[in-house]
Structure formats: structure tokens, C-alpha cells
Design brief:
The structure is a single chain. The chain has 16 helices and six strands. It is α/β, with parallel strands linked by helices. The chain has a six-stranded parallel β-sheet, sandwiched between helices. The chain is globular. The mean pLDDT is 85.
Length: 343
């Protein structure tokens, strides 16, 4: 069964009791992570006791039996169990598809429930196909939030700590949130922590105080200069980040978020949407649109897709050894800046 968008989100909060497994996927992995968290919360009994086993591509590839052993194992304390698998969608797709197929043949085949988190999956994906065709598994395709959805999430987070915020502050805060769900969640949590016990509505001054950091400015400056082809400015901003001790992975995350935003902009322009910049997350204001539009001209969708591939490869290299992380990112920034300058 395939559910999309809001239907998928609703299902993740109230899954049908007959479904033992769920595949959640979307262009933003943070959406799948949030859906998995909602499913686990829904599956947790009133006692609050549930066992969650987290697995990933590497652990299952090293020991394929690990997935099936965990699905079949029964908790010694009798509490429900959930196997949470994060995957790229390719490396262990055959094993996950096999598990879904086996679970579909016989109700109650496994002792544990299964939730699979994946990024973007093509329609021809074996894993996606197995989840869609299974009777006892659900396939959730998740899409980026609309502005109203983001505002609702911010209000709900503040309500939990007994706080609220002025309308203009809410608009400014949600407008500046990055499109990546995981990063946006971290910003919302930071806002709620700031608002706890404040005793008044959050105002514009509070939003400016929370967001105006030198590191955020230098990150944005690095990415803009890189994609504009301004090599000296990109190196200068990157140097400031190095001096401040900013993680090279943070630079890659910022570059990834901006690349995804530019891809979204191309899609909105191709669809003929009016004022596409204001529909992006975060939005591009009218005063910034000419520079952003010129940047888009340098980076058509195919070249942006190539940037994403280079980011994934750079992150893999960076994580393989802490000492090599900064040079790897510096090389990538230089290559992209040169490519933009040549364009």
C-alpha cells in the first residue's frame, strides 16, 4: 500500500494494527526519520515499555542474518520490539525486500515490527516495489513541508513548553528555517528551549538574537561565494570557519541544503509558479532574487545533481579519517567555485 504526503504523515501517527512493517522515504531523509519516530510512538504501549533496535546498511551487510535474527527474537521481558533500519535504499534492498515478502506470506511471521527509513527511491526501486505490493506493509512517500505545516509544528513545540510567539516573529522564524527537516527540527528545539519559562511572547528581537551568529553568516557566505564562482571570497569565508572550529561536515550539510533549495527553485520555475523565490525554504526575498537567479543559471539541475553526488563522496572521505576532513572539504569547495567561475 502506497500513501503519499499528508496521508502518509497521518498514517505514521495512527498506523493500522494489521501492518507489521512500514517503509518511509523521501528526498529529505529527515522526513523519514520523523515518520519512523511517530510510528514507534504509536506502537509504544501505555506502559511506555518498548525495545527499539537500530540497524544500518553496514551492520546488515556485514552480517545479513542480523536483520532476520532481530525480527524473530522475542523480548525476554515481554515488551514489544521494533527494528529500525536506516538505509540508502540500494545496498541491502534485496534483504529488506525478502523480509517484507516473508512477513506478508504469514501474519505474525516475525515477533518484532519493522520500520525502514530511506532517502529518495525511484519508482523502479526493488525495496519500494516490495513495500507497495505487500498486504501487511505500508509504503509512505513523504514530501517537504508547506509553510502552514511548518508554522503548525513551531506552534506545537512552543505549546509543549507553555510558550507562544508574535505573528511577525513566527513568520520570520519559519521563513529562515532550512529545508532539511533534521536541521529545522534542531532549530525548533533550540527555540522551544529558549522560550521555556520566558513568561512572555517571543518577539522579533528574540528571533534575531537566536539566529544572528557569526558561524551562520560565514557558512552562508562560503556557500554563496562557492556557487557564484568567487574563489577568493569562498576561501576567506572557509578560513574563518576553520578558525572558529566549525566542523567540515557542517559545511557539507549547508552546501547540501542550498543545492536542494536550488533544485526546488528550478522545479518551481519550470512549473511556471509565480514568485517562486518566496515559496522556497528558506525563501529568497525579492531583493536577493536577481543574484539567486544568476546563480541558478550557472547551475542547471543536472549539474546540481552532480554536486549532491560529490557531497556524498566528500562526506564518506571526511568520515574515514578526522585528520583528512578539512582538506577534503576545501578541495570540494575549490572545485565547485572553479566550475561556477567557468560557467
Amino acid at each position: 500500500m502506497l500513501l503519499k504526503g499528508k496521508q502518509a504523515v497521518t498514517f505514521s501517527r495512527r498506523p493500522g494494527p494489521e501492518f507489521w512493517a512500514v517503509l518511509a522515504f523521501g528526498d529529505d531523509p529527515g522526513l523519514a526519520s520523523d515518520a519512523a519516530a511517530s510510528l514507534i510512538k504509536a506502537w509504544t504501549p501505555k506502559s511506555g515499555d518498548i525495545e527499539v533496535i537500530s540497524l544500518d546498511d553496514d551492520s546488515i551487510r556485514k552480517d545479513p542474518a542480523l536483520l532476520f535474527d532481530n525480527l524473530e527474537a522475542v523480548s525476554l521481558l515481554g515488551e514489544p520490539r521494533v527494528i529500525r533500519v536506516r538505509t540508502s535504499g540500494d545496498k541491502i534492498a534485496a534483504l529488506l525486500a525478502e523480509a517484507l515478502t516473508e512477513g506478508d506470506r504469514e501474519s505474525g511471521r516475525y515477533a518484532a515490527r519493522l520500520v525502514i527509513e530511506a532517502g529518495s527511491l525511484q519508482s523502479r526501486s526493488k525495496l519500494r516495489g516490495a513495500a507497495m505490493s505487500a498486504r501487511l506493509a505500508a509504503c509512505l512517500q513523504l514530501f517537504a513541508d508547506e509553510a502552514e505545516d511548518i508554522e503548525s509544528r513551531v506552534k506545537a513545540a512552543l505549546l509543549e513548553v507553555g510558550a507562544s510567539m508574535d505573528a511577525d516573529a513566527l513568520h520570520a522564524f519559519t521563513g529562515d528555517l532550512p529545508g532539511h527537516r533534521g536541521i529545522a527540527n534542531a532549530e525548533i528545539e533550540k527555540l522551544a528551549l529558549y522560550a521555556r519559562g520566558l513568561g512572555r511572547n517571543l518577539a522579533m528581537a528574540d528571533i534575531r538574537a537566536l539566529s544572528a551568529t557569526d558561524i551562520d553568516h560565514d557558512l552562508s557566505a562560503t556557500i554563496r561565494a562557492t556557487l557564484d564562482g568567487n574563489i577568493p571570497a569562498a576561501h576567506t569565508a572557509l578560513q574563518r570557519l576553520d578558525v572558529a572550529g566549525t566542523s567540515p561536515i557542517s559545511v557539507l550539510r549547508s552546501l547540501q541544503s542550498e543545492t536542494l533549495r536550488m533544485l526546488d527553485a528550478h522545479a518551481k520555475i519550470a512549473a511556471g509558479q509565480a514568485n517562486p523565490g518566496m515559496k522556497l525554504r528558506p525563501p529568497v526575498w525579492q531583493s536577493d532574487w536577481p543574484a539567486f537567479r544568476a546563480r541558478l543559471a550557472k547551475w542547471p539541475p543536472k549539474r546540481l545533481a552532480r554536486i549532491l553526488e560529490r557531497i556524498y563522496e566528500a562526506e564518506r572521505q571526511a568520515k574515514s579519517g578526522g585528520a583528512s576532513a578539512s582538506p577534503v572539504v576545501r578541495v570540494l569547495i575549490t572545485e565547485l567555485a572553479r566550475a561556477a567561475a567557468a560557467a
